[in-house]
UniProtKB/TrEMBL annotation, chains A, B:
GO terms for molecular function: DNA-binding transcription factor activity; transcription cis-regulatory region binding. Pfam families: LacI (PF00356), Peripla_BP_4 (PF13407). Residues 10-64 form the HTH lacI-type domain. The keyword Transcription regulation applies. This is Transcriptional regulator. Signal peptide: none annotated. Keywords: DNA-binding, Transcription, Transcription regulation. SUPFAM superfamilies: lambda repressor-like DNA-binding domains, Periplasmic binding protein-like I.
DNA sequence: CTGAAAGCGCTTACAG
DNA sequence: CTGAAAGCGCTTACAG
């Protein structure tokens, strides 16, 4: 029976004593530096294991001036959508938490409507020496280039927000898109009455982002299929994201079809909320994504019924922590970390934490 | 323009130099110990402020053997309900995180069906010297005694899970009961069809816990009132928590009334789920509280539709951190910290984190 | 390949 | 009321 739970009582001193060497040598094997005789190394390794030695992180940090540089490559929040403010906040918070442990975080923000800015940032990053990279892989080809360079330099990288699982990332941290669509469909199912119809709305001009939305739609439809829901699913794609375009398109669709529930596959749901408000259709139920100020507005006014949200801020936070755990603490990191799928309503948005 | 964000470059040495004293004296005013001339103290204080000095916590901890003892006073998880496992887990996790900073956490668990065990634990706690107390104030009178003793000894205490806001706690961390009932009613409202009835079920033998449930019920009814929902609300109190009693009572009620939705005001909802399963009533929708294994079972089988949950584990975690922040870091702490109100369904329980 | 010394930024006795 | 020294558990040069 060991004195379990208690902080490890032994330090390098004790190890050195038992191994009959100086603490300098112990330090060498602890940080597996070169220049230790194999025999000595093994002896020390055994003692470390027997003693279940845990290094004192504070002492280590105090003594060492070693530094870990991380690069962050995510879209800049734009006037169009403030979504990326949240991950950036999480990143900065995590950066503050690990700063005292020698982690330095550099931000490289790109324009998500312009691939070339992504490439440019990649080039900037590659000019410097980073120990790890946190990336939102928005563009497949360009991301591929980054990944290859990381491969040759042996730099670990973490994806957030969306995944490319064929690339050898250290970890993916983000939403489970399919499942969130599946959940959305279940909510719609509760609302839907006999013979009523639901309308799926995709609002996006970016083809690259599109598979994001399709994954959600897929999950949505799967729910209906798997549960034998025989309500009809209508669908419309809107490629212009401005209010006028959305309004025109919806007006046309709703003239032709009787629709009682609308499911918007991304954060543009507030545009539809505005439409329902202006055209006086409070009875149409509306579901969409993301905890954005404009969405919350319409949630408050009851034009949006449910928002599905996957903690974007925490995604950023966990992204940095994954690299920290891996690089600094030498811990293993989960390959996939799906975020919780949160359901936000008028009643609980005030307590929500991104 | 200061070198913002960067770790403070100055330490006690620099302060000492500028004040023309030794670092010992600087240390004395830093930790406001006695034995420093007023003039000296003021001079040093000014320099500290001018330099925006931030102490290096790691060095501080490494050098100091100072220790902070916290007492935790919560119910033991019982065979009857495992609810309190979650807060305890959170407490232990937080304890592990702050252990290196000299925080020692002692657990005092009582039987929530037996006030005398609560009193006994209070006496044990008061025999020792604790710097802070984390408490689930289940019994008003007994809690009052604890609070008084803390007052005279000037020991800060934090409440979790339920509040007594007239007592001078450092913080309350827990659910917003009223609001969660209100949210439950909104969910029910989506489900409810014309002329259907909802049944509120309180299952509890403890009178002391009862006001907990009533708060939720109050919120539930308030939603119906405020939104002019004219569905009828039935209600039944069940004072025996075993399955037979619940079954008999429900059988009686459902014989007399047509009910389409049942709202259980606490974690006993699985008992009702079992009832629905055994009596073959899958069409009755069921809502209740808490992420417990037995509840998740019935959620999976679709006999429970929604679980409302308020992160019990995080409550414990935050409770310890509140005391740590206050005592060790000297930070201010929010008087009330309401937890998010999470909605759990068959689709998102897998990703849920307590 | 190994050891001894200095130092990280603090706190803790001890001496005066 | 104040200072000088030792030490917390490590890492970092430097010397051999």
């Amino acid at each position: 029976m060991k004195n379990e739970g208690a902080p490890s009582q032994v330090g390098v001193k004790e190890i050195a004593k038992r191994a009959n060497v100086s603490i300098g040598t112990v330090d060498r094997v602890l940080n597996n530096r070169t220049g230790v005789a194999v025999k000595t190394r093994e002896k020390i390794l055994k003692i470390i294991k027997d003693l279940d030695y845990q290094p004192n992180m504070m002492a280590r940090r105090l003594a060492s001036k070693r530094t870990w540089k991380l690069a962050v490559l995510i879209p800049a929040a734009s006037g169009e959508t403030g979504y990326w403010d949240a991950p950036l906040n999480g990143i900065r918070q995590a950066a503050a938490e690990v700063r005292d442990f020698g982690v330095i975080v550099n931000e490289f923000l790109f324009d998500q409507n312009d691939k070339s800015t992504f490439s440019a940032r990649v080039n900037q990053i590659m000019k410097q020496e980073f120990h790890g990279i946190l990336c939102a892989p928005m563009f497949e080809e360009e991301t591929n280039k980054l990944v290859k360079k990381c491969g040759t330099k042996n730099i670990p990288f973490v994806f957030i927000n969306s995944d490319m699982d064929h690339m050898q990332r250290l970890s993916y941290i983000g939403p489970d898109l399919y499942q969130s669509g599946y959940l959305g469909a279940h909510l719609v199912h509760y609302i839907l009455r006999e013979k009523q119809q639901v309308l799926i709305v995709n609002i996006s001009k970016e083809m690259d982002l599109h598979h994001h939305l399709l994954k959600k739609e897929e999950g949505f439809r799967a729910y209906f299929d798997n549960n034998g829901v025989n309500a009809k699913i209508l669908k419309t794609d809107i490629r212009q994201t401005d209010y006028r375009s959305v309004k025109n398109k919806l007006n046309r669709v709703l003239k032709e079809h009787e629709v009682q529930v609308i499911f918007v596959t991304n954060s543009r749901v507030s545009t539809v909320g505005k439409f329902l408000e202006e055209t006086g259709k409070p009875d149409i139920k509306l579901l969409g994504y993301d905890f954005l100020p404009e969405n919350i507005e319409y949630l408050k006014k009851s034009f949006i019924d449910f928002l599905i949200c996957q903690k974007p801020q925490e995604q950023g936070h966990k992204g940095i922590m994954a690299l920290y755990n891996y690089l600094v603490l030498g811990k293993q990191v989960d390959m996939v970390q799906h975020m919780p799928i949160d359901i936000i309503t008028k009643e609980n948005y005030r307590n929500y934490r991104n």
